[in-house]
Specification:
alpha/beta, 18 helices, 10% strand
Length: 388
């Protein structure tokens, strides 16, 4: 079910409360779990407001900090956190770049790390690193790491309690926390921003391609490290800038798909299942994305034409989606049920379809969730499809 922050509002609290009162968060998510008979469990994605405060996060606004307390979710603050002339710095020494450039620009608590020497200079004289740590503000930055990690442990302790209770009553988790990314999105979302990446595709395309090739092994390593300790074989990808409206087909086949495919194949080759959340519309991408081993991935579509997706991917990949968030928020229960029935009848024949939302719902009508569940139970069987 597409229940993003909906459990909080269903329980009578808001996201602000869930981010700061972990026990209230736990009560809300368990209430939703017990009262809505889904088939998998999805835990809280609120994060900890206290951790954000301790770190003085600058790349995000959240309820009560930059946004009204009544806001339904956090917002990413996009900026050019990596400058246009810094590609070589990142390629040469990614750890150093993240520590002394990226973290100080995105997190107020780590601004003193700009003073640190590159870690590679420690070779031959380990204690030389300490010279830069004699500064009081650098010492405070390291203390902040300890303080924020302790608070994050408290948050995840409660999240884990929710997960264990869900499992104890028969609700498996769909995903175990392992994630991977399209190399292009690392730059377009996190480092250069939409404006910066658009300029780079025209002004320095070869440098962008070189940088994406350089970071691809890091993305794979990160995903596999998390997947190896996960109870689920699923590795989640949120694909942001690859949709039909952001770039041309030519740009997609040059800057987006080849690099993304390399990551996908590395995950598949290690025995895991990529779950590819194609945000936006992928109608013009369907022919290209068929180029993966049969039965190896799940494509979760947001606003893609599902009949078209079924025709391209039937027998090749499982597809999921795309009950509209707008319908879940503003439609009637009967409209939700009818939409879900049409999806099942179109995409469910011969299997290979997961009924799911196109995106998450924060505030909405509980009866619309019940209508979605009713449609799945009434029409979501082979016998139900064949008998209608």
């Amino acid at each position: 079910m597409p229940a993003g922050q909906f459990p909080a509002y269903y329980a009578g609290i808001n996201v602000y409360t869930a981010m700061y009162d972990y026990q209230a968060m736990k009560s809300a998510w368990l209430k939703f779990l017990y009262e809505f008979d889904g088939d998998v469990f999805s835990g809280p994605g609120t994060g900890s407001g206290l951790v954000n405060e301790i770190l003085r996060v600058k790349s995000m606004k959240w309820p009560g900090h930059g946004l009204p307390k009544e806001a339904t979710m956090h917002q990413f603050v996009e900026d050019e956190y990596m400058k246009a002339d810094e590609y070589d710095l990142l390629i040469k020494d990614p750890s150093d770049y993240c520590l002394r450039y990226y973290l100080p620009r995105t997190t107020g608590a780590f601004e003193p790390f700009q003073k640190l020497m590159p870690f590679r200079h420690i070779l031959g004289m380990p204690t030389s690193f300490l010279r830069n740590c004699m500064s009081e503000d650098v010492q405070q930055a390291f203390q902040t790491i300890i303080d924020s990690a302790r608070e994050l442990s408290r948050y995840f302790e409660v999240v884990n309690e929710i997960r264990l209770e869900a499992q104890s009553i028969g609700f498996p988790g769909l995903m175990g926390g392992a994630q991977a990314h399209a190399p292009f999105d690392i730059f377009a979302d996190t480092l250069r921003g939409t404006r910066g990446i658009t300029l780079d595709m025209h002004r320095q395309p070869e440098k962008l391609l070189e940088a994406m090739e350089a970071i691809t092994p890091w993305i794979i390593e990160f995903a596999l490290n998390y997947a190896s300790g996960s109870p689920s074989p699923i590795v989640f990808f949120a694909l942001h800038k690859g949709d039909d409206n952001f770039m041309s087909d030519k740009q997609f086949t040059k800057f987006y798909w080849p690099q993304l495919k390399n990551v996908i194949m590395a995950i598949i080759n290690e025995g895991y299942v990529p779950l590819l959340f194609a945000e936006g519309s992928y109608n013009r991408r369907l022919e290209t994305i068929c180029d993966l081993p049969t039965g190896s991935v799940i494509w979760w579509f947001d606003r893609t034409d599902m009949a078209k997706a079924k025709s391209y991917l039937q027998g090749k990949a499982c597809i999921a989606g795309n009950v509209p968030t707008s319908l879940m928020c503003t439609g009637s229960p009967s409209a939700v049920k009818n939409y879900c029935r049409a999806l099942i009848e179109t995409c469910g024949k011969d299997g290979g379809f997961i009924l799911a939302g196109g995106a998450s719902v924060d505030k909405g009508n509980p009866d619309n969730f019940r209508a979605m569940l009713a449609a799945a139970k009434e029409y979501g069987t082979f016998a139900g499809i064949n008998s209608q």
